[in-house]
Predict the structure.
Amino acid sequence: MACVAEQTIPVTLGERSYNIVLHPGLLGTVGDRLAAFTTSPKIGVVTDKHVAGHYLQETLRSLCRAGYDPTPIILPPGERTKTLGTIAKILDVLARQKFERQSLLLALGGGVIGDITGFAAAIYQRGIPFVQVPTTLVAQVDSSVGGKTGVDHRLGKNLIGAFYQPRAVLIDTLTLRTLPRREWIAGLAEVIKYGIIADEKFFAFLEQEMPALLKLKEEPVIHAIKRSCEIKAQVVVEDERESDRRRILNYGHTIGHALESLSGYRGLIHGEAVGIGLVQEADLASHMGLCGRDIVERISSLVQRAGLSEQVSEASFRSLWGAMQHDKKVIGGRVIGVWPVQIGKVLIRPIARQVCAAWFQDKHGRRGRPSSSRQPGKHSVRPKARARR
């Protein structure tokens, strides 16, 4: 992979513009790439214990060679780390180490680390620069790009945060080699999402190349990451703060985030929940007459071929709808959904409780009927088991 040319994808946002740089082996040159973003020697490297075991020392060596004074901040892995308590711990380190406004934070890890680091950077001394170095597929194609930062609340995912753009996104595809199989497959849900919302040709590419992607073949992997980043960058440029167009990126996430919340961020990881959301929201769109069954079947087939589950089990409608009500995309009490009308085109539209309940009843039978003996939020939510490929 060393001979692959470096790819640069611009995110054009005026004074907040930056580049996404994609290159195998990039991690060893991180230190040399930071001069344009800070004049301070202090660099805070935020990561988690799993990523630190693979890539922290290489990153620290690169920073030291470039003349920086790095401070590692190692956090527990997983979604349950995304709390205000974790942010307070990061801010304590920055204050004790006398970080200044020109000091820089570097997010080395997956989406959780990127979200936490960006939020801490946004609020420390009213804003210091940060750079994303995503090491998971989900982070490389989605969460590291676009400036959404934040933490979870017990009632919902990403309810506390800020829009704060990084100074750069530096992607080393070699880090995917140490990604657990489950995380790799989960990340494919976000990749599939881009084809559904914006590019039928890319969706067809994924249909053709899914076996190669599951084997982490070099060329299809790099193309999938690059095209995903291009689509995300284009949408962010058109609507930085999610007032309209950017909402299409939430496809699969209305139900997906609800499932994550109901599982207490334990049973499902993000991409797995999104994979279920891609299929279930397409099925709901078909129920509303927005797309044909052929669209649902095509999405379902690709999700299954990626090794992801497509089904919700053991959730009542009341618990699911209640979790959807706590989503940050709710406006005026209305759940705003993203619905496919064809592959490559989606529609943003609110959904009424009665419509969603009728779909759930039709889809899930007796589990769709609310029961007075059940309490919202206390149901287990598990995907049906599916063999990994």
Q: What stands out?
A: The domain at 7-179 is CATH 3.40.50.1970 (Rossmann fold). The mean pLDDT is 90. The first helix runs from residue 49 to 65. The two ends are 24 Å apart (CA to CA).
